[in-house]
Amino acid sequence: MAKTVKIDPKIAKYGTGKRKEAIARVWIFPGEGKIIVKSSSGIEWNAREYFEREILMERINRPFVITETLGKFDVYATVKGSGKPAQAEAVMYGIAKALLEYNPEFRPILKSAGLLTRDARIKERKKYDQMGARAKYRWSKR
User: Fold this and answer.
1) Where are the domains of the chain?
2) Cα(73)–Cα(79) distance, integer angstroms
3) Are strands 35-38 and 22-30 parallel, antiparallel or unpaired?
4) pLDDT for 46-105, tens place per residue?
5) CATH class of the domain whose range is 13-112
6) Sheet of strand 22-30, all strands in order from the earlier edge strand to the far edge
7) What are phi and psi of 63, to 5 degrees?
8) Residue 28 pairs with which residues in a beta bridge?
């Protein structure tokens, strides 16, 4: 599917965000605050329609609110993997990295808000001879 958004490499800034199994590739460029999300199915969505919940939109806009740039940039993001909350956080991390590329003076603000530190928590692997990561099979004497 063709992109509806034209990204000019001269003015657009790029950032990659990751959270759990989710990966977001994010481009920001000067605009009026539109956020377009392309899902792994290839469909482009308005972010409010894709993420549905208001708390996820607040999370996505957090880097803009902290740096006082809300409504000054348009965002184009491709997301894949995991669920929508993790994808929203991945987009948030990607926006923070792209803002940093746009203006390096944002670094102390974003760093103190914890937006430049990747949340490295992932699902623990299942072990052999066990039901799951931690749960064991029940022991029976006879």
Assistant:
1) 13-112
2) 19
3) unpaired
4) 999 999 999 999 999 999 999 999 999 999 999 999 999 999 999 999 999 999 999 999
5) alpha beta
6) 13-19, 22-30, 73-80, 35-38, 44-46
7) -60, -35
8) 13, 75
